[in-house]
Amino acid sequence: MNSFQHKPLPKPGKWAALLGPGLVWMALAQGSGELIFWPRIIAEYGLGFLFLLIPACLLQFPLTFEVGRYTILTGEGLFRGFFRINKYLGIFIWILFIICFLWFGAFATAGGTAIAKLTEFPGSWTHESRTLFWAQTMIIVFTLAILYAKGIYRMIEWIMKVVAIISLLGMLFACCRPDVLSQLGIFLKGIFFPDVAMIKSFDLQNDTTGLLTAITFAGLGGFWSMFYSYWIKEKGAGQASHMDQMVGFRSGVNEIRSGEGSLPLDEPEALAKLKHWYRYLKIESIVGIVGNILTTLMTCLLAFVFLFPKGKVPAGYNVAVEQAAFFQESMGTFGKLLFLFIAGTFLVDTWLVTVDCVSRIHIDAITSIWPKTAKKDIRPLYYGLVILLAIITSFTMYFDQPDQLLELNAVLGLVGLLVYATTMIYLNHFHINKQLSPNLRSSRSSLVAIIFTMSCYYILAGLYIYFKYIYNDIHT
Fold first, then answer.
1. Which top CATH class is 5-474?
2. If DSSP codes are grouped into helix, strand and coil, which group holds residue 21?
3. How far is CA 209 from CA 4, 197, 205, 216, in A?
4. β-strands 244-247, 254-258 pairing
5. φ and ψ of 262, to 5 deg
6. Within 10 A of 3 (CB to CB), how many other CB atoms are there?
7. Contact 53, 194 (CB under 8 A)
8. Distance (Å, rounded) from C-alpha 253 to C-alpha 389?
9. Using CA atoms, how far apart are residues 473 and 476, in angstroms rounded to an integer?
10. Cis bond leading into 371, ω under 30°?
11. What is the DSSP letter of 32?
């Protein structure tokens, strides 16, 4: 399994048909943290930590590029590559992945807080009970959608594109109010010059995890960034076009690409085609990252104008409710209802995308450990995993309030990121390089870029451990 076959690298198709994973990346990034954690940081600490937002988002570019590059070069999902290095290493990373994604039902719960407030149904129930009711309802609805979809990835991409565009336009409209624009200058200054007084007031013991969550989820943090590989794969980008496709359960359309990957064959046009595919990958990554930066900045601006002066900090079962205040200030009751609708669909859609990608990754792990399963029809395995994950997340979302579970997910995700991304560096720049012709191998500049990114995440992890567990013992 360690060695690849070599096949000619396909020519890139039309850009309009290929583009899409970047918008899914943007939409998932917004739903997985930017509608919750950054507005909460701003609501509590004003412009103290805003200067970290853009660097945290841009830090994701080398990581996202490397994740996508593996699929462009091999046609496989990234997780399968870990097993190509070593079976037991792959199993270890898989165990970390399983633990991390026991808790993603919290996104359905977070979305449920908004839908519960929007509908006030069931009327006689408490807000907490209504939240859990709607979270459970949406998990069931989206599980059925996956089981009966004519094209799973196409359905997900379409939904996420619509929600991403609606949210972007909605935030832009809300930011055009005169009272919001009047604070724009101060806000823009805070992007580059932090409010030192607010930083000094930071609660190291209680808010360190929340700040880590905001930085880690600035974009797709933790194991989540690995999902990008599977969206690129489903688009048939690069060597993924050689992969066999699983026939759809109900309609005969293509659903899941599977099979053994292959590296580009050394041929006269290979380098030119590979550069073209890398250009496509960079454009997709930039669309996701820049779109995410713009939307998150707008949510932070609105939080600074409407939540920070009143001391309203979203938390607990109001994690996606307090933000509706700045829409209500901008557009009245209609604005409040619009935000609750957007937040609810965004956060619950995050569960939809996550359950699909987590199932695909589990399939990669299972078929790598037990190769005979790859020769069988993998449809029952995929659908069984979706149902199992729906049951597990329906259970774990009752363990704690949604924001606490999401913070736990961020801490576990950072640990997973350090392990998987470090392994990916070896996979992309050493393991695969040995099997590629010299002119198709990765450049030193890309290696330097990903090492810099990972160094920052290691420093972040070290700071978290120090301030969370060591700092108070030293100063008390």
1. mainly alpha
2. helix
3. 42, 20, 9, 10
4. antiparallel
5. -150, 150
6. 9
7. no
8. 24
9. 5
10. no
11. I
The SS3 assignment for 314 reads coil
Closest CA to 397 of 22, 191, 136, 181: 136
User: CA–CA separation, 361 vs 283, rounded Å?
Assistant: 25
> What whole-number distance in Å separates Cα of residue 434 and Cα of residue 4?
11
- Show the tokens assigned to 92: 């270890």
- Contact predicate 277/285, CB 8 Å: no
C-beta separation of 225 from 64 below 8 A:
yes
pLDDT band at 19; cut points 50, 70, 90: confident
Q: What is the CA radius of gyration of the chain?
A: 22
For 368-383, write each residue's pLDDT tens digit. 998 887 767 788 888 9
Residue type, 137: T
For 341, residues 6+ apart whose C-beta sits below 8 A from its C-beta are 114, 118
What is the rounded CA–CA span in Å between residue 171 and residue 294?
10
DSSP string, 228-272: HHHHHHHTT-GGGGGSEEEEPTTTS-EEEEES--EEEP--TTHHH
Instruction: Give residue 311's region: left, alpha or beta (phi > 0; psi -120 to 50).
Output: left
For residue 289 the two structure tokens come to 């990252």
User: 3-class DSSP state for residue 7?
Assistant: strand
Domain definitions of the chain by residue range: 5-474
SS3 of residue 295 by DSSP = helix
* Distance (Å, whole) CA 3 – CA 263: 9
- Pinpoint the alpha helices (H) of 149-203: 152-175, 178-181, 184-192, 196-200
Q: What is the pLDDT of residues 357-416, one digit of tens each?
A: 999 999 999 989 988 877 677 888 889 999 998 888 887 766 655 556 556 666 777 788
Which candidate, 109, 105, 102, 157, places its Cα nearest to that of 131?
A: 109
How far is Cα 24 from Cα 27, in angstroms, rounded to an integer? 5
**What whole-number distance in Å separates Cα of residue 214 and Cα of residue 314?**
13
Nearest-5° Cα angle at 273, 268 to 277: 160
Mapping DSSP onto H, E and C, the string for 340-384 reads HHHHHHHHHHHHHHHHHHHHHHHHHHHHHHCHHHHHCCCHHHHHH
